[in-house]
Specification:
Layout: E1 3-4, H1 5-12, H2 16-24, E2 32-33, E3 39-41, H3 43-57, H4 62-69, H5 76-108, H6 116-143, H7 145-156, H8 160-183, H9 189-202, H10 211-223, H11 225-232, H12 238-252
Antiparallel strand pairs: 1-3, 2-3
């Protein structure tokens, strides 16, 4: 079966403008252009669009989607299975949050008593699950299962106050990063303060700190696009600047 751009847009629940943009960036090309100049899409394009929307649901950026789907070794069935597992994990995290909200509402109504630990349990579990889903394979390969499991256990045992402090420190790091990058010098005081704050942030979850591990993590930030995107969203070039500031900071320590 074939579809015009408007019919495919309606079928998929996206806009025609989106499909035209996907065509422009070579993400989803029509199978042909008919004599009237209309884009025509076949079954192959329908299946590719479904795959694209799975990626978008998982918040994968368009540039990465193109790289993945146009790779010579792209295996649609294998990727679909990965999508399935990731969406199940996402649903599990949402279920935990919904359960926490339900308990919080009941607590506010005076129907149950909810401890402070219960109030933050789902958030910590979601943080752990999210980290495992996005970075677990690479981190475990680099630092070993024992280190990662100990880190997760430390997060689970974190008090309400420490959890909030860690979240606030993460926001402070983003703010410092924006200011520090503008100086262009990772050795300046503000950049070294940033690196020190990053070390402090790590110690909330790391079972122990070492200069070598800190260096290794900084290099991983650059090597892995997912890590790079996390800090570059604060300011362009932020990840490389943070890496350089950390390397300077670590080398200065006795």
């Amino acid at each position: 079966m074939e579809y015009t751009i408007s019919k495919l847009a309606k079928l998929a629940g996206v806009s025609s403008r989106t499909l035209r943009y996907y065509d422009e960036i070579d993400l989803l090309k029509p199978s042909r252009i008919n004599s009237s100049g209309y884009r025509i899409y076949g079954q192959k394009e329908v299946d590719r669009l479904q795959q694209i929307l799975f990626f978008r649901e998982l918040e994968v950026d368009l540039e990465t989607i193109i790289q993945i789907m146009d790779a010579p070794n792209f295996d649609q069935l294998n990727v679909l299975m990965q999508h399935y597992n990731e969406l199940v994990q996402k649903r599990t995290r949402l279920d935990k949050l919904i359960e926490t909200i339900d308990k919080t509402i009941a607590h506010q109504k005076g129907e149950i008593m909810m401890s402070n630990e219960e109030k933050f349990k789902a958030f910590k579990e979601n943080l752990i699950a999210g980290n495992e889903q996005q970075y677990g394979k690479e981190i475990r390969e680099k630092y070993g299962d024992k280190t990662v499991d100990e880190s997760n256990a430390k997060l689970r045992g974190m008090s309400k106050e420490d959890y909030e402090a860690m979240e606030n420190l993460g926001n402070e790091i983003f703010e410092l990063l924006q200011k520090a990058v503008e100086t262009g010098d990772p050795s300046l005081e503000i950049a070294q303060h940033l690196a020190a704050k990053h070390k402090e942030w790590l110690t909330y979850s790391w079972p122990s700190y070492s200069k070598e591990a800190h260096k290794g993590l900084a290099e991983m930030y650059i090597a892995d696009e997912r890590f790079k995107a996390y800090y570059d969203k604060a300011i362009a070039g932020g990840t490389e600047f943070l890496r350089d500031a950390i390397l300077v900071y670590v080398d200065k320590q006795n």
